[in-house]
């Protein structure tokens, strides 16, 4: 059907469609305005603000306690996700983060259930961290390296146990004490302690 005649219904429909986006835009603006007024009501704003503050305060209390627990033992540090992140950042400054990365890779490896994936993961971890001249070679003795190599022939979830244990001991006795004495961790403990004192003074 042609729309060249004045007053043609099809032409009117086209004109109506052309104005539709403007109408939609105006409605959207009106809706946004109404929502804005609703969200800025004092009582609603107070409830939202209070809830957010409570949640944030809870997270701060938990993290403060966690930070102080890291100095209790190396195990406590490794149990904490934020502790592992902080320790990893510190190890980067000493160019020895491969030790923690290897330990974490071994932990992930132990969770593997598929025998096919177990073998491929074992080879990948060995090539990246354990074999001599590996891209991210960890500091383990030759004997442990050879034992781990032999374990690959019949890969099980325990094939890196000895190498992982040696790396963990090295971190615990060497890197971990330096981490606790580092300026970054000292700052974190000061902040955690001051938050704890502030909390007690308000109770």
TrEMBL record:
GO terms for cellular component: membrane. It is found in: Membrane. Residues 73-189 form the RGS domain. It comes from the Eukaryota. GO terms for molecular function: GTPase activator activity. Keywords: GTPase activation, Lipoprotein, Membrane, Palmitate, Phosphoprotein, Signal transduction inhibitor. It is a lipid-anchor. One of its GO terms (biological process) is negative regulation of signal transduction. Pfam families: RGS. Regulates G protein-coupled receptor signaling cascades. Inhibits signal transduction by increasing the GTPase activity of G protein alpha subunits, thereby driving them into their inactive GDP-bound form. Plays an important role in the phototransduction cascade by regulating the lifetime and effective concentration of activated transducin alpha. May regulate extra and intracellular mitogenic signals. This is Regulator of G-protein signaling 16. The gene is Rgs16.
């Amino acid at each position: 059907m042609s729309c060249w005649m004045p007053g043609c219904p099809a032409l009117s429909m086209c004109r109506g469609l052309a104005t539709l986006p403007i109408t939609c835009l105006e409605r959207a603006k009106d809706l946004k305005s109404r929502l804005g007024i609703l969200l800025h009501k004092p009582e609603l704003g107070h409830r939202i603000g209070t809830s957010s503050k409570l949640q944030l305060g809870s997270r701060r209390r938990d993290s403060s306690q966690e930070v102080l627990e890291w100095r209790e033992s190396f195990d406590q540090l490794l149990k904490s996700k934020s502790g592992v992140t902080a320790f990893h950042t510190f190890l980067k400054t000493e160019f020895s983060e491969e030790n923690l990365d290897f330990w974490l890779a071994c932990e992930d490896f132990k969770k593997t259930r598929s025998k096919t994936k177990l073998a491929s993961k074992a080879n990948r971890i060995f090539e990246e961290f354990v074999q001599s001249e590996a891209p991210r070679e960890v500091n383990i003795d030759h004997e442990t390296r050879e034992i781990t190599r032999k374990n690959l022939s019949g890969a099980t979830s325990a094939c890196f146990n000895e190498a992982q244990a040696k790396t963990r001991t090295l971190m615990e006795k060497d890197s971990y004490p330096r981490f606790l004495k580092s300026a970054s961790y000292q700052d974190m403990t000061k902040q955690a302690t001051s938050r704890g004192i502030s909390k007690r003074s308000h109770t």
